């Protein structure tokens, strides 16, 4: 196929460090697997605020639009924490999701066998956990209008947001969840608070309709968000695919990630719709961990989540299943061999830094 | 003091069974501690729908208003699951909260030493966990207007809710959290998504102002809700008091409860404001577990959470600290002695049912 265009957005904190290790993997693939990508880099997050005054410059959005896939690092840090709402580094990722129509965030929470002991949960509870959270990412309370902080006639401040979904926004992300379930263990748990929220009531109804009409072969379970949080903590193995809106998906995917005990290992993908004329589908890949400002620049961050995000990219955006598996297997082998970055360190293992981990993966490849 | 008025609302599912055991405790206290309460009972939830067509009849609200405290069981069950939104059993508790102005829900998540092994988390992670979640319960997205499901001109359905807080609604529940922290380990973690929600931005600002002006001696930490879910799962001991709005408080208090592994042991209190003229404060006490329809009527439910809710009632509404401690200690001793209901059963312990547990507690008293 023609040269694939890859946009790399390292961002802030540990983003640039861990992205550096992915660059090595890309170089290896270019030489040994004769894959060639056209790679561009652009600014996003705090570093973009510092350089050009915006967390997501128009140029970055334009490059992302032109690319076949975006590999994102992480954004934010204490330096920008006191900026007003509309100028925060987080807007970098929010705007990319919105402008590129990236509506489905796929967040696997997978407990790899060598890392069972890294979890705060008992080994028998987490061994074998393999959950995929599908989160809606361009709707709901994150973007709903009206929203703001206003002053009432009596002088009191009033802060408000609108939680809103139109039925097709629910249906399209539900389809992503059902499609994934078919390739996995065939079960979707759809999460809302239909008992107290009107948008949750519509959510449950539409997911049920899509299920009945298009995916009757998949098992569908509806669960309240509070109960889902409980169940994730006490019996995570019951879940296959969890489907949630922007807000519940945010909280529950982080919880699912945390229970694996290895945040530094978890990638994610955010996908748009397939364009009917070009056949192209915008997609952005990013690790689940944040910018981790406390360890940035120390060379101790775990680059695996960023590398695994790149593996997801190879699979989902470039159709390179074999290369994706190659990279994933290399990482698993390095871990099985006993190498560990600080975040997943266990007694008896060898503690290494960011670049030694990157080298080890390339060597394993 | 004059006779205290207590309203008992057993509700649905296991509610009546576990409430029965509290009745024994009340009888014991009447005889041995010469406490006398005027006790009334009323209908709420599904049973009220069946009897009089409303999940929260006006008569129940009137009785609750007249009472010094309300002891609530639990509501809901599959029988009423297909009823329309406005007629569900859950409206029973929602209306009571709203009509009585019960704005602060206090939910302790306490890991008792004899129950450390009941948790899905490792013993070293949960031993000693003692968290109090303070959740706002009459505002936010649960009640905000406008809300509804409408049909757009193009025929698509649109579901929407309003997440809204006025500053004094935030300040008063923040004060409850800070006051509690002073009697505990002096730390409040306030939770929102100030990075994406305008109401969250106001929440953070107002909590900060109350802290600075009235509670500078208490440690205040602001945390995003997604991060809080992660931290609860991986390092729960870092928390003392967690303060959240109606929705985040709902999800995070259930998560905090779940990580103790002993939902059947956890009580809660929901408090209103102190009336400036009468000095009276409305309050409702209920176990955290739901109506558990799957085990209702089998005589195996754990009555401890309902009994501990009554202990909270004695302490908070009737000022009977000594009697509250007496009851709490009796329950702890029964557990330390090896008796367990099915939900907290452990190898080597003696498995008992609802009424044997109730008897054992009364005997211990
Ligand atoms: C950075 C922030 C805006 C973002 C979100 O809330 O969506 C983050 O928590 C995430 O999950 O990607
Ligand atoms: C029953 C339901 C309306 C309620 C809520 O969401 O508040 C419950 O989950 C709770 O936490 O008390």
Automatic annotation (TrEMBL), chains A, B:
Annotated keywords: Amino-acid biosynthesis, Branched-chain amino acid biosynthesis, Cytoplasm, Leucine biosynthesis, Magnesium, Manganese, Metal-binding, NAD, Oxidoreductase
Co-factor(s):
Mg(2+); Mn(2+)
Sites where the protein binds substrate: 97, 107, 135, 226
Binding of Mg(2+), residues: 226, 250, 254
Quick check: keyword ATP-binding in the entry?
A: no
Which SMART domains does the entry mention?
Iso_dh (SM01329)
Domain Isopropylmalate dehydrogenase-like residue range list:
5-361
Record site: Important for catalysis: 142, 193
Query: Which pathway or pathways does this protein act in?
Result: Amino-acid biosynthesis; L-leucine biosynthesis; L-leucine from 3-methyl-2-oxobutanoate: step 3/4
The free-text cofactor remark is: Binds 1 Mg(2+) or Mn(2+) ion per subunit.
Q: Which residues form a coiled coil?
A: none
Instruction: Identify the domain of life.
Output: Bacteria
> Subunit comment for this entry?
Homodimer.
What is the protein named? 3-isopropylmalate dehydrogenase
Organism annotation: Paracraurococcus ruber
Phylogenetic lineage: Bacteria, Pseudomonadati, Pseudomonadota, Alphaproteobacteria, Acetobacterales
**Gene designation per UniProt:** leuB
